[in-house]
UniProtKB/TrEMBL annotation:
It is a multi-pass membrane protein. Gene3D superfamilies: 1.20.120.1630, 2.30.30.140. The chain crosses the membrane at residues 79-101, 121-141, 162-184, 196-216, 245-268, 274-294, 315-334, 340-358. It comes from Adineta steineri. It is found in: Membrane. GO terms for biological process: cholesterol biosynthetic process. Residues 3-60 form the Tudor domain. It comes from the Eukaryota. SMART domains: TUDOR (SM00333). Belongs to the ERG4/ERG24 family. This is Tudor domain-containing protein. GO terms for molecular function: Delta14-sterol reductase activity.
Length: 471
C-alpha cells in the first residue's frame, strides 16, 4: 500500500468508458488495490491505479491522455470515410428541407409543383448581420461574468499545459440579445432577414466549412478533458477563453431563439397579429432553451464526452442543424394557413408540461439521493463496491427519465405544426434518435463499472430503458 496515493489526496481520475479526466478525491482502497474515488458530483467509483494520477503529473504530459485513445467510445471520426458519408447525408437533408421550404410558396398545398422563381435575396444584408451576430456573441461569451456556482475548467490533449474556462452566461447573453433586437427593431431590416432565412442557412453552412478547414489544416482538432470545480481555485494557473468551444456552441444555440424573435417581430410589425399555435410553439421553445441555459455547465460537460467541439460534426450541428432545423417549425407555422384543431394545441401544452415537470422531478430526486451520499439502501441498488443507483421515484419507471422528458418537450412544441407534413418533425426525429443513443451510451458506461451480476440485478428493478412498459 506504500506505493499508492494516500487517502484524502486530490487527484485527477478517468471517468469510466471515456477519455475524460475529472477532479476527484481518494476516499478508500479496494482489496485489489484499486482507488475508491469520489467525484465532485458525489459519484463514488473504484478505479485501477493507471486511471488515477496527481494533477501536476497530468498537466506535464500528454501520455496519460493518449493512452486512452483506443478506449474512447465515441472518437473524433472527422476524417474517416464513414463519418464523411454520414456528414454529407446530414448536409443533404438540411439543404433539401431548407430548399423545399424556400421555393414552395404554398406549403399547405403539397401537391402543387415547386416554384423556381425565387423572391429577392439580400446577400449583403445577410453577411453584415451574420458578422455582427458572431462579434456580439463573442463579446458576450468572453466578457460577461459567469453565472452559477458550478464552473467548467478543462484541458485539451493538444495543449495539456493550458487551462481553459467556459463562462456559463448564455442566459445573460440571450436576455441582452433580445433587448438589443427589441430596442433596435425599427433599424433592423426585419422583413429582409426573415425572407433570407434560406440564405442565412446557406451562409452559416459556408462559415462551418471554412472554420472546419482552418481547424483541420492547423491541426487544431483535439479531445477535451474536463475538470470541474465547485469553487474557483485561485492557486491554479490562469484560465483562458476557448474560441473553438465558443464557435461550436454559443452562436448557434442563441441563434435558435433569435430567429424565432426575428420572425415574431416581423409578424407583429407587418401583420399586427399572431396565431395561437405560433405563440404556443414559440413560448414552449423559449422555455425549453432557457432550461438548457440554466443547466449549461452540465450540458456542455456531457457533450465533451461525445464529440470534440472543434470537429466538423459539432460545428455543423450547433451552427446549422440546431438553429435552422429547430426554428423551421416556427417558420413553417408562420407560413402555413392550415387550421389546427384545438385538441392538438391542448395536447401540445400537455406533452410539454409533462416533460418539463418530469425533468425537474428527475433532477431533484437524483440530487437529493446524491446529498445522502448514495446511502439510501431501500431506494437504490448496489452496482459495484462503492456505488449505488437510485431506483425510486420516477427513476423506477425507466433508467433515463430525464431523456424521456426531453422527448416529451420536443414533441410538445412541434405539435402546433400539425402532423400532416413531415418536414417540421425532422428535428423532433433527430432529438428522439439522439436521446436513444444517449440512453444506450449511459447504460453501456454503467455496465462497464458494475461488478459481476450487478447490472443484471439493476435492470431487474428498473426494466425499461427510456419509455415505461414499451422500451
Amino acid at each position: 500500500m506504500s506505493s499508492l496515493i494516500s487517502i484524502g489526496t486530490s487527484v485527477v481520475a478517468k471517468w469510466p468508458s471515456t477519455s475524460n479526466y475529472y477532479k476527484a478525491r481518494i476516499i478508500d482502497y479496494t482489496d485489489n488495490n484499486h482507488y475508491v474515488c469520489q467525484f465532485l458530483d458525489g459519484s463514488v467509483i473504484a478505479l485501477p491505479s493507471k486511471y488515477v494520477d496527481l494533477p501536476e503529473k497530468f498537466q506535464r504530459t500528454t501520455k496519460r491522455i493518449s493512452l486512452m485513445r483506443n478506449e474512447q467510445i465515441f472518437l473524433d471520426h472527422s476524417l474517416s470515410f464513414y463519418s464523411l458519408i454520414m456528414s454529407l447525408g446530414w448536409i443533404g437533408i438540411f439543404l433539401y428541407v431548407q430548399h423545399w421550404f424556400h421555393y414552395n410558396p404554398d406549403i399547405d398545398n403539397l401537391n402543387r409543383p415547386l416554384s423556381h422563381a425565387p423572391y429577392q435575396q439580400y446577400p449583403l444584408i445577410v453577411i453584415q448581420y451574420l458578422l455582427l451576430w458572431f462579434l456580439l456573441q463573442l463579446i458576450f461569451a468572453r466578457y460577461f461574468p459567469h453565472i452559477g456556482k458550478e464552473e467548467l475548467i478543462y484541458l485539451k490533449e493538444s495543449q495539456p499545459s493550458i487551462y481553459y474556462k467556459h463562462h456559463s452566461n448564455s442566459l445573460f447573453a440571450f436576455i441582452i440579445t433580445c433587448l438589443i433586437m427589441y430596442i433596435f427593431r425599427e433599424q433592423i431590416p426585419l422583413r429582409e432577414l426573415t425572407k433570407s432565412y434560406y440564405l442565412l442557412a446557406l451562409f452559416n453552412l459556408g462559415i462551418v466549412l471554412i472554420l472546419s478547414l482552418i481547424l483541420l489544416t492547423n491541426k487544431l482538432f483535439s479531445r477535451y478533458c474536463s475538470i470541474s470545480f465547485n469553487e474557483h481555485d485561485h492557486k491554479q494557473k490562469q484560465t483562458y477563453f476557448d474560441f473553438h468551444l465558443f464557435i461550436s456552441i454559443r452562436p448557434g444555440i442563441i441563434l435558435w431563439l433569435a430567429l424565432n424573435l426575428l420572425l415574431l417581430l416581423t409578424i407583429l410589425k407587418y401583420n399586427r397579429q399572431i396565431s395561437i399555435r405560433f405563440t404556443i410553439s414559440i413560448l414552449l421553445q423559449t422555455i425549453y432553451i432557457i432550461n438548457v441555459f440554466i443547466n449549461e455547465t452540465t450540458m456542455i460537460r456531457q457533450s465533451l464526452d461525445i464529440s470534440p467541439p472543434s470537429s466538423f460534426d459539432a460545428l455543423f450541428t450547433n451552427l446549422c442543424w440546431v438553429p435552422f432545423m429547430a426554428t423551421f417549425t416556427s417558420f413553417y407555422i408562420g407560413k402555413s394557413h392550415r387550421p389546427v384543431h384545438t385538441y392538438i394545441l391542448l395536447s401540445s401544452i400537455i406533452f410539454f408540461s409533462l416533460g418539463f415537470l418530469l425533468q425537474r422531478l428527475a433532477i431533484r430526486q437524483r440530487l437529493a439521493f446524491q446529498a445522502l451520499n448514495n446511502s439510501n439502501i431501500d431506494d437504490s441498488v448496489m452496482v459495484n463496491d462503492s456505488q449505488r443507483i437510485l431506483t425510486s421515484g420516477c427513476w423506477r419507471w425507466c433508467r433515463n427519465p430525464h431523456l424521456l422528458a426531453e422527448i416529451l418537450m420536443v414533441i410538445g412544441w412541434t405539435l402546433p405544426a400539425d402532423i400532416k407534413c413531415i418536414a417540421p418533425w425532422i428535428y423532433t426525429f433527430y432529438i428522439i434518435g439522439m436521446t436513444i443513443y444517449k440512453a444506450h451510451y449511459f447504460d453501456r458506461t454503467l455496465r462497464n463499472t458494475c461488478t459481476t451480476g450487478a447490472y443484471e440485478h439493476y435492470i431487474e428493478h428498473v426494466k425499461y430503458t427510456l419509455i415505461p412498459f414499451i422500451y
